[in-house]
Amino acid sequence: MADAETFAFQAEINQLLSLIINTFYSNKEIFLREIISNSSDALDKIRFESLTDKSKLDGQPELFIRLVPDKANKTLSIIDSGIGMTKADSKKKKKIKEVSHEWELINKQKPIWLRKPEEITKDEYASFYKSLTNDWEDHLAVKHFSVEGQLEFKAILFVPKRAPFDLFDTRKKMNNIKLYVRRVFIMDNCEELIPEWLGFVKGVVDSDDLPLNISRETLQQNKILKVIRKNLVKKCIEMFNEIAENKEDYNKFYDAFSKNLKLGIHEDSQNRAKLSDLLRYHSTKSGDELTSLKDYVTRMKEGQKDIYYITGESKKAVENSPFLERLKKKGYEVLFMVDAIDEYAVGQLKEYDGKKLVSATKEGLKLDDETEEEKKKKEEKKKSFEDLCKTIKDILGDKVEKVVVSDRIVDSPCCLVTGEYGWTANMERIMKAQALRDSSMGSYMSSKKTMEINPENGIMEELRKRAEADKNDKSVKDLVLLLFETALLTSGFSLDDPNTFAARIHRMLKLGLSIDEEETVGDDVDMPALEEDGAEESKMEEVD
């Protein structure tokens, strides 16, 4: 190996090292990776040259990279046997004649985000939006602003008219916000710049304060990005509120991006209250129009303390739900939350304007507007139906946690409610549809159901009389099971065994039509019978 010569840096070492440490890389450990990578390149170079000139390896035939730590002197030496750092390898200086060129400036236009908003026309914004996003339609809204102070940056944000088909595709690269530093494009996939729930917003951010780096890691971990992100979220919410001033435009916006707003409520605790003002729902009093939580509060009855809502698969599925009977009769407005993500959003929102959001399908629904006479009558009814509640519980066993007299239903014979902190029927349906669901969590969160019976309903009154006459009457058991299964359906749950339910309905139809069971026994071999004793048919017919 040739004799090594030692050279000193001909530069201000402190400034150079500071530049390398603070500008090139964010993590101090990266320097070691880069130096070892350089050594590897030097080995590749000498190996390649030795293929045509064997003498290259005469001095040191072994190719190596050695890391030598010196604890005493607190140094780490990286030694390699490659080429590229010897004096012979240095390029000789060449003298050339000075050549001048004539240049023509192509980008004469000033970047649109550097101009004042009042100087820019709608057509210019539209043209810039289309060139930025490759969208063929104009944007729905634009927010052009600059932030000054300790941190300075300029930005233009756009809301498109429609949501892309792959808006929530996790495999999609997030490239909606183009990041510039001093008018130089840096990247378009900076995940730290804007939260996921604002993934539909497109635009440009230009900052003079972000350092230009060789490694993108510094940019991703820079504290300035957090400040920019906070300001972008704030300005986006301002833009959404501006859109809301025009009802027609906001209906288009909400139809396309309501899921994003609800995702923001679920994920962004700092802006949850502001985002809740942007929510819109159908309700028992809004008809075909959507209503805001703010408008709901203005229509609340005198003395009403809570905001009532019901979740379900669709508006049609919930608007005639038995859970709404008493609320409607008393004049309370109920919001219809029929988007799957509503379950997650309302779980985080919990309250609005100091008023608690209460589900009409869970335990704990209390309406404090009863007169003393009504309370007294209700207590008498509860007492008279205590024995029936025990009988129903004995028949259903572990299918329900308890059976109680209901305060929420008026016309229906019964319904099934869930625990205050457990899943609703709709949430249970959503979780069952998850391909990668946690089955252990499902059994924990899908709490046992409470069966609420309506003492004013004729079916329940007749059932009470039969149970008092003979609680072991098999027709009582049949009716209880049928009521339970129909309550599952009307309360939004799914049947574990729909075939048995269908067979039970068919049996009831035959009894109602006075069809002799023996005449159709050949057709009904697989049908589970409600009764083992045919003598009970007369009792079932009495109910019909």
UniProtKB/TrEMBL annotation:
<dbReference type="InterPro" id="IPR020568">
    <property type="entry name" value="Ribosomal_Su5_D2-typ_SF"/>
</dbReference>
<dbReference type="GO" id="GO:0005737">
    <property type="term" value="C:cytoplasm"/>
</dbReference>
<keyword id="KW-0067">ATP-binding</keyword>
<dbReference type="InterPro" id="IPR001404">
    <property type="entry name" value="Hsp90_fam"/>
</dbReference>
<dbReference type="GO" id="GO:0051082">
    <property type="term" value="F:unfolded protein binding"/>
</dbReference>
<dbReference type="GO" id="GO:0140662">
    <property type="term" value="F:ATP-dependent protein folding chaperone"/>
</dbReference>
<comment type="similarity">
    <text>Belongs to the heat shock protein 90 family.</text>
</comment>
<protein>
    <submittedName>
        <fullName>Uncharacterized protein</fullName>
    </submittedName>
</protein>
<dbReference type="InterPro" id="IPR037196">
    <property type="entry name" value="HSP90_C"/>
</dbReference>
<feature type="compositionally biased region" description="Acidic residues">
    <location>
        <begin position="520"/>
        <end position="535"/>
    </location>
</feature>
<dbReference type="Pfam" id="PF00183">
    <property type="entry name" value="HSP90"/>
</dbReference>
<dbReference type="InterPro" id="IPR020575">
    <property type="entry name" value="Hsp90_N"/>
</dbReference>
<keyword id="KW-0547">Nucleotide-binding</keyword>
<feature type="binding site">
    <location>
        <position position="216"/>
    </location>
    <ligand>
        <name>ATP</name>
    </ligand>
</feature>
<dbReference type="InterPro" id="IPR019805">
    <property type="entry name" value="Heat_shock_protein_90_CS"/>
</dbReference>
<dbReference type="InterPro" id="IPR036890">
    <property type="entry name" value="HATPase_C_sf"/>
</dbReference>
<keyword id="KW-0143">Chaperone</keyword>
<feature type="region of interest" description="Disordered">
    <location>
        <begin position="520"/>
        <end position="544"/>
    </location>
</feature>
<dbReference type="GO" id="GO:0016887">
    <property type="term" value="F:ATP hydrolysis activity"/>
</dbReference>
<keyword id="KW-0963">Cytoplasm</keyword>
<dbReference type="GO" id="GO:0005524">
    <property type="term" value="F:ATP binding"/>
</dbReference>
